Amino acid sequence: MTRIVMKFGGTSVADIDRIRNVAQRVKREVEHGNQVAVVVSAMAGVTNQLVKYCTDLSPLHDAREYDAVVATGEQVTSGLLAIALQDLGIDARSWQGWQIPLRTDRAHSKARIQEIPGAELIRRMETGQVAIVAGFQGLADDNRITTLGRGGSDTSAVALAAALKADRCDIYTDVDGVYTTDPRIVPQARKLAKITYEEMLELASVGAKVLQTRSVELAMNERVRVRVLSSFTDALPGEDTGTLVVDEDEIVEKENVAGIAYSRDDAKFTLRRVPDRPGIAACIFGALADQNVNVDMIVQNISADGTTDMTFTVGKADLPRARQALADVKGQIAYGELQEDPNVAKISVVGVGMRSHAGVANTMFRALADKAINIQVISTSEIKVSVLIAAEYTELAVRALHTAYGLDAN
Amino acid sequence: MTRIVMKFGGTSVADIDRIRNVAQRVKREVEHGNQVAVVVSAMAGVTNQLVKYCTDLSPLHDAREYDAVVATGEQVTSGLLAIALQDLGIDARSWQGWQIPLRTDRAHSKARIQEIPGAELIRRMETGQVAIVAGFQGLADDNRITTLGRGGSDTSAVALAAALKADRCDIYTDVDGVYTTDPRIVPQARKLAKITYEEMLELASVGAKVLQTRSVELAMNERVRVRVLSSFTDALPGEDTGTLVVDEDEIVEKENVAGIAYSRDDAKFTLRRVPDRPGIAACIFGALADQNVNVDMIVQNISADGTTDMTFTVGKADLPRARQALADVKGQIAYGELQEDPNVAKISVVGVGMRSHAGVANTMFRALADKAINIQVISTSEIKVSVLIAAEYTELAVRALHTAYGLDAN
Prior knowledge:
Carbamate kinase, eight-stranded mixed sheet, alpha/beta, 13 helices, homodimer, EC 2.7.2.4 (chains A, B), lysine biosynthesis (chains A, B), four-stranded antiparallel sheet, Aspartokinase (chains A, B)
């Protein structure tokens, strides 16, 4: 008996016909003899509409109310899919985050899952009932709804797979796997049969939006085998398709670079003439952390006349909050000027093979220089090199790098 | 210190601008020194769309899943109004049915409220926080979401007013009060300054859709003073406007007939050649009750050859369920034929003065006869006479009766 979690994203449940298709796909797995739990996103477009309502009413809205509003999208889909499955003669019921309850912390709009009691769901799955779980949402200890951040349904699915001790977590999406880069930009991009958790993590964190970053982290920590596959092609249960996200050990031939990713979700701040004294960075980034703003790349220039320039990036969604936080500490820090640039893109090359091969970063810098693309900020990790460039060069840069690393399909 | 419950229907919160207007109106009451709880409906059109999703997937869908789906409309509005109020500097938070918890029975899609613990809400209202309660929804003892039936937010509001011991329950809607009849049909219709619970109840039950029937019953039982007023005119707090629904004692001059109502929400069933023996009616209406189908008018002809004809009406929404239930008992009852007619309208004249004045029914029958309108079924109560006619005569009948009872404004 195989126990699986199937997760369907917004485009897979975009309308009633597609929800019926999803029900058919779930039914096939049930009839194949599997125990099945399903995690669903909101119907495509719904979450954006709900977010827009909140933002239109107030850019700095209460995140608890935002969560109550946006969590409804998944609630609708979970009930509809349960109805569609019942209509096919399959026993099914919907579960909201607060009903399970899927416990999270209180970081509203970007909450982290703390605990999922799986016993009751397992008991019902063993009787043949399909659990349809509303993704993206949970319950904080103050009895209020939380949401996990955009793409959070992936995290719901992986966490549920771990809690249910599932054999596999199948993430159905509108692409048929993980590619060496975005095929809309590079038609020669190739689908990867397997990718390591670490690579997937770096790709996800820099904008290859197949899986949410945290879902991959969680899969890695909990050793959940994740499969990314398309909900629009007709794979049979058990068939080998999509991309499997697994342990490094499972991959025999490792390439230097697995893929090229890009992200236009960040904005760049530069604080000019910051007094160069101990504790300044703590003060700036402490103020941002207090507002729940995640800071990504950080560069500090060498100090001249007792002051320095500090450049960093934050998610565009956090921009008003970050701007406010930085204005609030101006009295304390006495920086000269605050500059803001939303027109930036982060380009990254990723690969576990990088660890044992020198020259990967240099290939990147040379390829970009050849196209006269200016690098604004550089950051590196063990298996990734990222650069910040002007957003208008995004496609050009991705194509040049895909070719430079020999990733183009023949 | 006055404690009030304000309820806003779907058209009052139809878009972001209207939600802002509602927030302004709530703010005025707060600044007037009132403790305020607000009950909101879904944005206009949203519930219909959600119901359609369910019906499209399966006409006989699981009512528990239906409830999970349709309850989201009110959840969205409650969060948005909280954001709008906070943006005006008013402390506010949203409450879902399961958070209060607003306890109901398990009759999904038409649940009845059993208990609302008010202490926590009162405590917060006393600190100045506005409670925004999602209308129409509650929680059954199996921890699943219930809904109260269409228009259920009125019932939520009145029940909440009772639980909070509120001084008044203001129902904001798209009309500015209760009229002698539907002004869209009879332009000479007059607004009533006051109406008794009993009259309001009869009007609501026959389709004057200003208030849901159950909300009026509840108001009568709990002696909640209800005011119906428009959310689109600019009344100031404390101003005397709209229609007050109150005890009969509060109304000095009672008219014979307070109003004329109509409803096209019913469908007529006729069972031909039903064996005329004891227990038959119990069998038929028992089967319908088991399916949660409400039966309204019932007529049984005098028995001829050992069989009789049985005519009754049910809500159009219950039609498939009723048809199924009647087919299921055909073996048991052995009736001859089942006829179904959805093209009927129920026209009612209502007034507490009727009790002490004879001839009210006769005026009705004569007025309809003068227009050559055939009466299919008649039913009466202490303060109401209703007839079932072909739906195409609805407007003609309402106008004729409004004139016949001298209700036309000068």
